[in-house]
Automatic annotation (TrEMBL):
Chain spans, region Disordered: 644-754
Entry protein name: Immunoglobulin superfamily DCC subclass member 3
Subcellular localization, as worded in the UniProt entry: Membrane
Species for this entry: Donacobius atricapilla
Polar residues composition-biased segments: 644-654, 689-707
Pfam family, one: fn3
Length: 754
């Protein structure tokens, strides 16, 4: 019962048929539904009137007494037939049945004489067109070919193959074509088998490859492939797309013909026949395409529905087939015309009827059709209408409040208002289709609604319905009103100081501004009330330089966007040029010529300074090197003097003298009693020698050893206080003061100086 309206539906529909000339033809049509039902027939869309030749039977079928392909008046009984059934619920139309006359043409391909060596392959072919497809049989020497012989292969398209030829295969062959229209015989052809089987090598060769075929599901496809060669080649099949051919329904006829039974759409593809030389990779190929069509059939049928007045009815009809079917909708047997409230979507698979009323009550049919066939399904729309429903709301008015808001008001219906439970406001952009409509529910005591979140400068349509528990009223009159235009939004503004008298105002264009015609720029000194401007700028301008400004004051800059609806809000920025002036004073503009000369002079001075610095460093290094060398020599001389006294082992051990430092005992005891070295201890440590006078003149005064105990950590013989001159007897000049040339005593200073 899927796809049937219980009020009116087809049980049997007419089907495609092939009629025989001068023979009767019956087209069946059976309908069920609520009586009375009227059935009529059409041919090629034209109503058939009962006549002596064709009339309708009591069960609704159409009877054609003598089918004629061409009548004396030029008319024909061939064509597309459909039956229509109608009752007070509506009208339905059956699928179209294609009726054709049985025919058979003459043979346009006849078998040809052939001479083939023994062991070879012979092929005969005859071809003829006819409706229905003729059955072709082969005769040899006027007798039917023995099909039990496995070397003889008969293909459906009128091909006879004989493999492994022998002498007894020689003879005269012809074919016989038969269908309900006629029987015809082809011309005869002679087969001669010559010689004995050859052992000469021959490359594999495909004599005939597969043809391109277009068939319908459940039919049988035969792909021919016949090959020759010595040794006899092996024939194999594959699909060009690499998919497996499968085994179900697959059969090999003869030595290499592929037969596929009970075709499905999945069998469509390109098939490759390959002839391989046994044991090698030598091969020849041929290919042909197979297209399998499937007539349209429904995946989802439309269902009969009942809807209250003013609501939306939706029918869904999904069909499949190969090629994909086209879907057409009928309303009571007539092609459905779309309008503002009748829409087709999803490749006509969905029928939507908005705001239904009693005039929309009908039987709706979905027709799916492709080149392989057609089918239909029907469903009925029942519009629910209860007596005593409210009349339409009155006095619907819409007033614009702002760019995004409209207020809609109305008055209650004139009749049947007691059962009203609320109102529904239907809202839609005037330019949008009906399916874009949306609703807002309102309580029964409210007679106005503020509609917000609308788009500026846009027209909207409104209508009202009153609802009861039993259904809705008819729609009120439709009112259309437009929202106000909206001024642009605030632009972003940035200020950049160029110099002491110029600033640059920049801003970014943005879609957030909305529709705008341009910009207005104002500026002023902050202590003044009067603005300079407006400076009118085009909508594509994004920067403007403000010049001749006073650097000692702060400026206010204001920018806004405007359009035909007015000025938008402004963006304000403050800017001061004082810092720029101060930077200019601190860093005055350069005199390029003067600076260049100064740069040259400065460069010369820098070079001279570098030379002087390097020279000083060299002298310092030399001074340090020679001073260090002198100290080493002095240390050597002192060590020699220290080694002169012969102090007992115990005394030496107790004294523990260390050059350039305090004695170990002194270091151990300096924190206990603060003992200081005196002159007597120095004399005890350094006994007088024959050169005592010279030594006294070469060694620092005793007072340098009388420093505080805290300073004794410095050497008691600080070598830095000595100047050493190598002795050159009799050759060096005398000191002007009469001192020995061996050493010059330093000024009396602290022992730890330096």
């Amino acid at each position: 019962d899927l796809g049937r309206s219980s009020e009116l539906a087809f049980v049997v529909e007419p089907s495609d048929d092939i009629a025989v000339q001068e023979q009767p033809l019956i087209l069946y049509c059976q309908v069920e539904g609520i009586q009375p039902i009227t059935i009529t027939w059409r041919k090629n869309g034209v109503m058939i009137v009962d006549s002596e030749n064709s009339f309708m039977l009591a069960n609704g079928s159409l009877y054609v007494s003598r089918f004629q392909r061409v009548r004396g008046d030029g008319s024909s009984d061939e064509g597309e037939y459909d039956c229509m059934a109608q009752n007070h619920y509506g009208l339905v139309v059956s699928r179209k049945a294609k009726i054709q006359a049985a025919t058979m043409s003459d043979f346009h391909i006849h078998p040809q004489n052939a001479v083939v060596e023994e062991g070879g392959v012979a092929r005969f072919q005859c071809q003829i067109h006819g409706l229905p497809e003729p059955v072709i049989l082969w005769h040899k020497n006027s007798m039917p070919v023995n099909t039990d012989n496995e070397r003889y292969t008969l293909l459906p398209k009128g091909v006879l193959q004989i493999t492994g030829l022998r002498a007894e295969d020689s003879g005269i062959f012809h074919c016989v074509a038969t269908n309900i229209a006629n029987v015809k015989f082809s011309r005869e052809a002679r087969l001669t088998v010559s010689g004995s089987h050859s052992t000469v090598y021959k490359d594999p060769m495909i004599l005939v490859g597969p043809e391109n075929l277009t068939l319908t599901v459940h039919q049988t496809a035969v792909l021919e492939c016949i090959a020759t060669g010595n040794p006899r080649p092996i024939v194999s099949w594959s699909r060009l797309d690499g998919r497996p051919i499968g085994v179900e329904g697959i059969q090999v006829l003869g030595t290499g013909n592929l037969m596929i039974s009970d075709l499905t759409v999945q069998h469509s593809g390109i098939y490759v026949c390959a002839a391989n030389k046994p044991g090698t990779r030598v091969r020849r190929t041929a290919q042909g395409s197979l297209v399998v069509q499937a007539p349209a059939e429904f995946v989802q049928h439309p269902q009969s529905i009942s809807r209250p007045v003013g609501t939306t009815a939706i029918f869904t009809c999904v069909a499949q087939g190969e090629p994909p079917p086209q879907i057409t909708w009928l309303r009571n047997g007539q092609i459905l015309e779309t309008s503002d409230h009748i829409k087709l979507k999803n490749n006509n698979s969905t029928l939507s009827i908005y705001g239904i009323n009693q005039a929309d009550e009908a039987i709706y049919q979905c027709l799916a059709e492709n080149s392989a066939g057609s089918t239909q399904a029907s469903a009925r729309l029942t519009v629910l209408w209860a007596d005593g429903l409210p009349s339409p709301p009155q006095g619907v008015r819409a007033e614009t409040v702002s760019a995004t808001t409209i207020q809609v008001s109305w008055e209650k219906p004139l009749q049947n208002t007691k059962e009203i439970i609320g109102y529904v406001l239907h809202i839609r952009k005037a330019a949008d289709p009906v399916e874009m409509e949306y609703q807002e529910a309102v309580s029964k005591s409210t007679f106005q609604q503020l509609v917000t979140d609308l788009e500026p400068s846009t027209s909207y349509s409104f209508y009202i319905k009153a609802y009861t528990s039993r259904g809705a009223s008819k729609a009120s009159e439709v009112t259309v009103v437009s929202t106000l235009g909206e001024v642009p939004a605030m632009p972003s503004l940035f200020i950049k100081v160029i110099n002491s008298t110029t600033v640059q105002a920049t801003w970014e264009p943005s879609i957030k501004l909305g529709q705008h015609e341009g910009f207005k720029l104002y500026y002023r000194k902050v202590h003044l009330s009067q603005y300079t401007g407006p400076v009118l700028l085009a909508s594509n301008v994004t920067a403007y330089n403000i010049t001749h400004l006073d650097a000692s004051v702060v400026y206010e800059v204001k920018l806004l966007a405007y359009n035909q609806h007015g000025d938008g809000n402004s963006t304000v920025r403050f800017v001061s040029l004082r810092e720029t002036v101060e930077r200019t004073v601190l860093n005055p503009p350069c005199d390029c010529m003067k600076d260049e000369q100064n740069n040259k002079t400065s460069t010369t001075g820098i070079i001279i300074g570098i030379h002087i610095g390097v020279t000083c460093i060299i002298f310092c290094i030399l001074f340090l090197m020679f001073g260090y060398r002198g100290r080493l020599l002095m240390c050597k001389n002192v060590q020699e003097q220290l080694s002169t006294p012969q102090i007992p082992r115990s005394q030496r051990s107790a004294t523990g003298l260390v050059l350039n430092g305090a004695t170990r005992r002194d270091r151990d005891d300096r924190d206990l009693n603060g003992k200081q070295l005196d002159m007597n201890e120095l004399e005890r440590l350094f006994p007088a020698s024959p050169s005592q006078e010279q030594q006294e003149k070469g060694i620092t005064s005793a007072h340098s050893l009388s420093a505080s105990h805290d300073e004794t950590q410095i050497s008691t013989l600080p070598l830095d206080e000595f100047s050493f001159i190598e002795e050159q007897p009799d050759s060096l000049p005398k000191n002007p003061h009469g001192s020995s040339p061996a050493a010059l005593a330093p000024d009396n200073g602290p022992a730890n100086e330096g």
